[in-house]
Amino acid sequence: MTRTHVGVAALLSLLVGWFVFDGVSSLVGLPALFAQLGVDPARVPWVALWAGVVLPVVLYLAAIVVARRQSLTRFTLVLIVALAATAAVRLSLIALATGSILL
Question: Cβ distance 97 to 49 under 8 Å?
Fold first, then answer.
């Protein structure tokens, strides 16, 4: 990996940090919201909440490993695709976690 690869990875890692921050805030805030709504604590979707914290990092690191020997353009594209996949998974986890209130 060249310096430009590392620079692109560092720049795009700020977005990964935002996804991790969002996951941690959901991990902390959603159980409190469930408690205020009177939902049984056993119904808190812990797996989905923890996945929201761990998956952005795992997907991003996997993208870096997969694309580390590619040209800068392909490397950047693979990282952007990993971020798009992270966003899609994050929205699915939000739907799963908040949909469990109704179940």
Answer: yes
End-to-end Cα distance, the chain: 48
C-alpha span between 40 and 42 (Å, rounded): 5
- Joined tokens for residue 83: 């971020």
SS3 at position 103: coil
Tokens standing for residue 70: 């590619």
Dihedral sign computed on CA atoms, order 44, 46, 51, 53: positive
DSSP 8-state secondary structure symbol assigned to residue 39: -
pLDDT digits (tens, 9 = 90+) for 37-95: 888 888 888 898 899 999 999 999 999 999 999 999 999 999 999 999 999 999 988 88
What are the backbone angles phi and psi of residue 40, rounded to the nearest 5°? -55, 130
Spans of all domains in the chain? 3-99
DSSP H helical ranges for the chain: 3-37, 46-67, 72-99
